[in-house]
Amino acid sequence: MAGSEKILEGFICPICMTEFKTPNQLTKHFEEFHNDDPEILKSLKDLFGKAKKKILKQDEISESFPEAIPSHKQHSPELNWGPQEIGGMKSYTSYFKEIRNTRLERYSTETNKLLIRLDKLLNNLPTDPVDRKVHERAIVPWIDEKDVKLCPTCAKSFHVARRKHHCRLCGAVMCHSCTIFLSLQDARKMTSPVSVQDDSAISPTSERPISERIVRAGIGLTKLARSPSSSSLNSVLSLVNDPAGSEQHFRICIHCANLLDAREKQKAKHFDKPIICQFYEKMRGYMEEASQHVKMYNKMWESLSEGESTYNLEDAQALRIKIAKLGENLDSISKRISVLGTKCVENPPQEQELRLYEMVRVSAMIFLKEELLSIQALPSVERYIQLQNERQKRLEARIAYERQVEEDQRDRLKEQRKRDTWNADARSSIKDNQPVVIMNQTQGWGPSNVAPKMPSSMDPIIEQMSNLRAYIKQARDDCRYDEVATLESNLKELQSVYFAMKQSNNSDG
Questions:
Q1: Nearest to 32, CA basis, from 13, 8, 10
Q2: Which of 30, 60, 162, 332 makes the best surface tag, with the fewest CB within 10 Å?
Q3: What's the CA angle centered on 452, arms 451 and 453, to 5 degrees?
Q4: Would the pTM of this model clear 0.70, i.e. be above it?
């Protein structure tokens, strides 16, 4: 029977089934009695060597197997499985998003339900306590208080001193310690943040402010402080007899209050900007205002430097003072940004934030150096009067020059008319008094020498060239080099035309 067979343990000879206590005795037994087959003895030695090294946790491999293992793996007991292929891949992003969206939608849906109920409660809210309770139960159904034996939040039992209260937003039953009072003013702000209301606009029949026993307990939430009376019944009666306590707030549970509080915090986080953004926007406003003032100041400086009276010197000085004040404000606010949060021990700024603050400071310094500190200084009152006198002299000289040019043009026009009338008279007299030329066979014919010859000084091109030379000299004396260049180009064109006419006349002659 398999169950009655003796179980052999230890170092047993596989041939004669003899039991030995140590591996050395078994090896010696093989060498003495079973040395006929050397392969069995060799395999047994290799097996004992492996077992011994494994027991002693040696990393070296037996020298009897060097050829079976690669050279780069002889000193490592790990097996080389070769290059592994990439297995199947699956993305769980959509799954995680679905779970997250479900969770977020749950909270957003519950919060929206509370806001809708709160808006309905505020709409046509009665002032009478009895009618108000009916209105609240009509909007939000209340849980039957008989079914609730313990407070679901603190698990405390209800009795005369610990009454049951209903949440006006979810209808659940809570004890007084697990409820929070939400003021009507804060409720109206939650449902319509645009509207601005004060204490007098909360109830048309209420003339006194909110009771002093309404204390703050969070963002937009208030909690009613218990009366210090020793009797719980007296404190309950005091709450009942307090008309302001029943008119100026809604009783809600902590869970609804937490949802509304989370929404208010999210709104504040969304609309409130970090302090660095506020400082930076203020600094950018200073920069834009300073840039506009600098442009206007440069125009005024150019006008005043020319001695013009378009702008007033006092206005320019006032504008310069304003630019200097903007520069001081810009420098101070950039310094505040550079040291922002460095003194905070609990939450010091990180390396990237410090680098950002430093770069903002550097940009402000570059703006101050290139834009504000490089503006020109205004002339003094004496210097400005001197500039005005010099400008007046230049204007008078220019007016005199323009008048002289006009007179010269009128004189040239008169001379031109005289020459035209004289040439017309000369042509008519030549035709009338032309001598008769007598011709014979011995004497040839020729043109009469009576006709007058036009002098070269009367050529209009030469006169125009001389006028241009005079204009060039006057413009050069006035340092108007752009007009000098234009007049010289016109003179060259006239000279080329005159030389071309001369050559054509010589070739015809």
A1: 13
A2: 60
A3: 120
A4: no
